Amino acid sequence: YALAICCIGALAGCASMFGPTTSDPAVKLQWAEENLVRNTDPAAAEKLIRDAMEIYEKKKDRPGLAEAYRQYGLFLRSYSVSNAAEYYTEEGFLDKTVQFNDRYEKAIEYFSMSRDLLADLGRYDTLASVYVSLAKTYGLTNRRDEACKAFDKSLESFARFKMASKKTAE
Predict the structure, then answer these.
(1) How far apart, in whole angstroms, are the C-alpha atoms of residue 129 and residue 71?
(2) What Cα–Cα distance (Å) separates residue 94 from each residue in 73, 100, 141, 169?
């Protein structure tokens, strides 16, 4: 009995060593975002985002998957990843199709996947935000015309959201 109590205590100590865990993909995305904002551990943020993506894919949760794609695009474009250039150049990303030097192009791909899902779902509020993210990333890749078009699409999406909100309120 004493040995069992000792083992349970030791295991609890180990769990706290590795930080909090959750199976909720929305919480995983929130933790990843907080991690990126604090610029503490981009590899941990990437793992959380990829875990959330996997959960949403299994559940066939399209709104959740759209958010996970958006977050992965933001991750790839983040200051945290830029600061970890040596790590990502040597170790790579969890998405093995991403290379450090093409991460902005891959961010555009993830934002585009998010955009397509959100457009199908009629989620114009979040869609407007994704278009802004696309525009910023096009800007980083010196694709000015595409950036301007994405900003225009953002305004259109926001207008559709406001129109839909107004109809709902009536």
Answers:
(1) 11
(2) 13, 12, 22, 44
pLDDT tens-digit map of 96-140: 999 999 999 999 999 999 999 999 999 999 999 999 999 999 999
Decide if 138 contacts 146 (C-beta within 8 A). Answer: yes
Helix 25-38 to helix 42-59 angle, to the nearest 10 degrees? Answer: 160
* pLDDT band per the 50, 70, 90 thresholds, residue 165: confident
Angle at 24 between CA 20 and CA 28, to 5 degrees: 60
Which regions of 27-154 does DSSP assign to beta strands (E)?
A: none
Q: Which single residue is written with the structure tokens 């975002």?
A: 33
CA atoms within 13 A on the CB side of 71: 29
Which pTM does this prediction carry?
0.83
**Torsion 70-75-79-82 (CA) sign:** negative
